[in-house]
Design goal:
The protein is mainly β and about 160 residues long. It has one domain: YaeB-like (Elongation Factor Tu (Ef-tu), domain 3, Beta Barrel). It contains one helix and six strands. The protein has a six-stranded antiparallel β-barrel. Strand 4 and strand 5 form a beta hairpin. About 15% of the residues are buried. GO terms for molecular function: methyltransferase activity. It holds the Pfam family TrmO_N. Belongs to the tRNA methyltransferase O family.
Protein backbone atom coordinates (compact mmCIF):
# COMPACT_ATOMS: atom_id res chain seq x y z
CA UNK A 1 0.00 0.00 0.00
CA UNK A 2 1.32 3.40 -0.95
CA UNK A 3 -0.14 6.71 0.05
CA UNK A 4 0.87 10.11 -1.14
CA UNK A 5 -1.75 11.96 0.85
CA UNK A 6 -0.62 15.17 2.46
CA UNK A 7 -2.41 17.10 5.11
CA UNK A 8 -1.32 20.67 5.70
CA UNK A 9 -1.03 21.59 9.37
CA UNK A 10 -0.74 24.99 10.94
CA UNK A 11 0.99 25.64 14.23
CA UNK A 12 -1.51 26.62 16.92
CA UNK A 13 1.20 28.24 19.00
CA UNK A 14 4.78 27.91 20.15
CA UNK A 15 6.74 26.78 23.16
CA UNK A 16 8.15 29.76 25.03
CA UNK A 17 11.00 29.15 27.45
CA UNK A 18 12.43 25.94 28.76
CA UNK A 19 15.45 24.48 27.04
CA UNK A 20 17.02 25.98 23.95
CA UNK A 21 19.23 22.99 23.17
CA UNK A 22 18.37 19.31 23.09
CA UNK A 23 19.44 17.37 26.19
CA UNK A 24 18.17 13.80 26.41
CA UNK A 25 17.38 13.57 30.13
CA UNK A 26 15.99 15.40 33.18
CA UNK A 27 12.87 16.97 31.65
CA UNK A 28 10.57 16.63 34.68
CA UNK A 29 11.27 20.04 36.20
CA UNK A 30 11.82 21.98 32.98
CA UNK A 31 9.15 24.70 32.91
CA UNK A 32 7.94 26.47 29.80
CA UNK A 33 4.83 28.09 28.41
CA UNK A 34 2.75 27.19 25.42
CA UNK A 35 1.56 30.42 23.86
CA UNK A 36 -1.41 29.83 21.61
CA UNK A 37 -1.78 32.09 18.57
CA UNK A 38 -4.03 35.05 19.45
CA UNK A 39 -4.77 35.61 15.75
CA UNK A 40 -6.40 32.18 15.62
CA UNK A 41 -7.98 31.83 19.06
CA UNK A 42 -9.92 33.78 21.64
CA UNK A 43 -8.97 33.31 25.31
CA UNK A 44 -12.15 31.32 25.94
CA UNK A 45 -10.77 28.39 23.91
CA UNK A 46 -8.91 27.33 27.05
CA UNK A 47 -11.93 27.60 29.36
CA UNK A 48 -12.08 24.55 31.64
CA UNK A 49 -8.54 23.42 30.87
CA UNK A 50 -7.40 24.63 34.30
CA UNK A 51 -9.26 21.70 35.88
CA UNK A 52 -6.84 19.16 34.35
CA UNK A 53 -3.48 18.23 35.84
CA UNK A 54 -1.79 17.12 32.60
CA UNK A 55 -1.80 17.82 28.87
CA UNK A 56 -0.92 15.87 25.77
CA UNK A 57 0.95 18.11 23.36
CA UNK A 58 1.62 17.37 19.71
CA UNK A 59 4.53 19.36 18.30
CA UNK A 60 6.90 19.50 15.35
CA UNK A 61 10.55 18.56 15.69
CA UNK A 62 11.28 21.62 13.56
CA UNK A 63 15.04 21.52 14.08
CA UNK A 64 15.42 18.04 12.64
CA UNK A 65 16.77 18.20 9.10
CA UNK A 66 14.40 16.06 6.99
CA UNK A 67 17.44 14.82 5.04
CA UNK A 68 18.84 13.28 8.25
CA UNK A 69 15.82 11.09 8.90
CA UNK A 70 16.96 7.47 8.84
CA UNK A 71 14.26 4.82 8.63
CA UNK A 72 16.67 1.90 8.96
CA UNK A 73 16.84 0.01 12.28
CA UNK A 74 19.34 1.44 14.72
CA UNK A 75 19.91 1.44 18.49
CA UNK A 76 18.11 4.22 20.35
CA UNK A 77 20.44 7.15 21.07
CA UNK A 78 23.10 5.28 19.10
CA UNK A 79 23.84 3.12 22.16
CA UNK A 80 25.52 -0.08 20.90
CA UNK A 81 24.39 -1.94 24.04
CA UNK A 82 20.77 -1.66 22.86
CA UNK A 83 19.33 -3.59 19.91
CA UNK A 84 18.71 -1.94 16.57
CA UNK A 85 15.02 -1.11 16.22
CA UNK A 86 12.95 0.45 13.46
CA UNK A 87 11.76 4.04 13.51
CA UNK A 88 8.34 3.02 14.84
CA UNK A 89 9.88 1.11 17.79
CA UNK A 90 11.42 4.19 19.41
CA UNK A 91 10.45 7.80 20.09
CA UNK A 92 13.46 9.71 18.80
CA UNK A 93 12.85 12.95 16.86
CA UNK A 94 14.18 11.60 13.55
CA UNK A 95 10.73 10.47 12.42
CA UNK A 96 9.07 10.50 8.99
CA UNK A 97 6.75 13.42 9.82
CA UNK A 98 8.93 14.85 12.62
CA UNK A 99 5.99 14.77 15.06
CA UNK A 100 6.51 14.68 18.79
CA UNK A 101 3.90 13.77 21.39
CA UNK A 102 4.48 14.55 25.03
CA UNK A 103 2.51 14.39 28.24
CA UNK A 104 3.32 17.20 30.63
CA UNK A 105 2.05 18.74 33.84
CA UNK A 106 -0.24 21.75 33.49
CA UNK A 107 0.83 24.34 36.05
CA UNK A 108 -1.47 27.23 35.15
CA UNK A 109 -3.74 28.61 32.45
CA UNK A 110 -3.72 32.34 31.74
CA UNK A 111 -5.87 33.00 28.69
CA UNK A 112 -3.92 31.66 25.73
CA UNK A 113 -0.81 30.93 27.80
CA UNK A 114 -0.44 27.46 29.27
CA UNK A 115 2.36 27.09 31.80
CA UNK A 116 3.70 23.54 31.83
CA UNK A 117 6.47 21.36 33.28
CA UNK A 118 8.01 18.27 31.75
CA UNK A 119 7.29 19.15 28.12
CA UNK A 120 10.24 17.74 26.18
CA UNK A 121 10.14 20.36 23.43
CA UNK A 122 12.52 23.25 22.90
CA UNK A 123 11.93 26.98 23.13
CA UNK A 124 10.29 28.11 19.88
CA UNK A 125 8.96 24.67 18.94
CA UNK A 126 5.72 24.82 16.89
CA UNK A 127 2.78 23.33 18.78
CA UNK A 128 0.26 21.51 16.55
CA UNK A 129 -2.32 20.43 19.12
CA UNK A 130 -3.05 20.50 22.84
CA UNK A 131 -5.41 18.09 24.58
CA UNK A 132 -6.21 17.48 28.22
CA UNK A 133 -4.84 14.16 29.41
CA UNK A 134 -7.63 11.83 30.47
CA UNK A 135 -6.73 8.79 32.56
CA UNK A 136 -9.24 6.76 30.55
CA UNK A 137 -7.09 7.24 27.45
CA UNK A 138 -4.09 5.68 29.19
CA UNK A 139 -3.06 2.17 28.39
CA UNK A 140 -5.44 -0.60 29.36
CA UNK A 141 -4.16 -3.89 30.61
CA UNK A 142 -0.56 -4.73 31.32
CA UNK A 143 2.02 -2.56 29.58
CA UNK A 144 5.12 -4.38 28.37
CA UNK A 145 8.33 -3.00 26.91
CA UNK A 146 11.86 -4.27 26.37
CA UNK A 147 14.45 -3.82 29.12
CA UNK A 148 16.54 -1.33 27.12
CA UNK A 149 13.61 1.12 27.32
CA UNK A 150 13.78 1.04 31.13
CA UNK A 151 17.48 1.96 30.88
CA UNK A 152 16.79 4.71 28.33
CA UNK A 153 13.98 6.28 30.38
CA UNK A 154 15.62 5.95 33.82
CA UNK A 155 16.72 9.62 33.86
CA UNK A 156 14.38 11.11 31.22
CA UNK A 157 11.78 12.59 33.58
Amino acid sequence: MTTNDSYPLRALGRVDGGRTEWVEDDWADVEAAIRLDATMFEPDTTTGLEHFSHLEVVFLFDRVDPDKINLRPRPARGNPEWPPVGVFAHREPFRPNRLGVSRCRLLAVDGLTLRVAGLDALDGTPVLDVKPYLAEFGARGTVTQPGWVDDLMAEYY
